[in-house]
Amino acid sequence: MHHDLVSPDHIRSLFAQAMSEMYRTEVPLYGTLMALVAKVNADTLAAQPALEAQLLRNDERARLDAERHGAIRVGTAEELSMLRRAFAVMGMSPVGYYDLSVAGVPVHSTAFRATSAAALAANPFRVFTSLLRMELIDDADLRAQAQAILARRDIFTAGARALVEQAERDGGLSEAHAHRFVAEVLETFRWHSQATVSHATYQALSQAHRLIADVVSFRGPHINHLTPRTLDIDAAQEEMLRLGIDAKAVIEGPPRRAVPILLRQTSFKALEEAVAFPDGDHRQAGTHTARFGEIEQRGLALTPKGRALYDQLLDAARDDGKGSTGSDYPMRLAQAFADFPDDLDTLRREGLGYFRYALTERGLAMPKSDRQELSPEALIEAGLASADPIVYEDFLPVSAAGIFQSNLGGTEQHAYAANASREAFEAALGAPVLDEFALYAQLEAESLESLHAG
Ligand code: OOG
Ligand code: NI
């Protein structure tokens, strides 16, 4: 009975596709963004054949058009751990721990994503998933009220729960059950224009933090954005402004460079949407802002050494209390990053990034015994091997906080005195989060082995 199970990669692709279709109907501006990114990517590839060759070599060309990440925020440990089980059916594991309380956002987060080279090539769909930190609500009565409201809701359909259990029991799903699973799990991510709390309760929650109102007031954790990947974010940003889209003032992350590193992101502001609040036998009209649009460019995954340098230089650029605001920020950022090497050979030789090694045609033609005598660097120098950037698959806490803030009105900047609480997060999740560096190191190690094998 198990011979007809489909792969988790297939289920993830179906889910990413269904999510994209749903979000396009919910937020038409998302369709505009996708068209814009498709055009910028086509123009960039036409102008840079070497970039296209690199993407082809690294199995990144095919995945590019479908590549997306989304984000949701949940309220309880049970919701988070059930999500972990649902994502596992799609081959997605929790990677990394992000503490956003330091930036005034009362959540901590992980990213669910594929981890192996083959799975990432098949579909790199990721979901940045945040858990509200109840203990950061000061007002004990409000905290108790929020907890009681969350305790009454189930963000999963009965069908989704049954199919997750079935997949866990049988080790997967058949094609027909995979389609059913995708339709059922999609319900968790759907937007609801009817709140579950009165307008007065919504306002009290909002007063504590707008994010708390967003998490607590609805039937489920609506997907709040879905982000396509562009190959030239500066061109995409210009195009957004040209189309009159209300884009964020600055691009988060590193400055523009010859060799893109980590992640650069821009977004358009959250839409103000009509919401009906229950009011006795009636409804009261109001609004809520949650959903926005985002575009990102991904680059080289950095090693701990490279990441430490990135964090240090970003800190220096932001270190006048203004964060990423102020019209001189792009200049401060570019100046700070003058100290970050910006060519592939230096980045590799100094161990700042992770690389994927492969034999060139000439390398493949050479007898294995000759090849085995040469180090990777010697093979590269002789044109027998290539070393391409391994793409960063994760997120950046400072950028994520900037994205959160720009969609919360940009005013609530006070940091919480809380500490990062990875253990509490993992207890809620019901599993440890994977270490992103270990995953990149493994991809690099596998590619190095291929130089001397076969
Ligand atoms: C998540 C924001 C983080 C990113 O790209 O850094 C994020 C949220 O607003 O829920 O998606
Ligand atoms: Ni995002």
From TrEMBL:
CDD domains in the record: VOC_YdcJ_like (cd16348)
EC main group: oxidoreductase
Keywords tagged on the record: Dioxygenase, Iron, Oxidoreductase
InterPro entries, per the entry: HGLS, YdcJ_bac-like
Cofactors that this protein relies on: Fe(2+)
Protein name (database record): 2-oxoadipate dioxygenase/decarboxylase
Organism: Pseudoxanthomonas composti
Family, per entry: Belongs to the 2-oxoadipate dioxygenase/decarboxylase family.
Superkingdom of origin: Bacteria
Alphabetized GO MF terms: dioxygenase activity
Oxidoreductase is among the record's keywords: yes
The protein's Enzyme Commission number: 1.13.11.93
Keyword DNA repair (UniProt): no
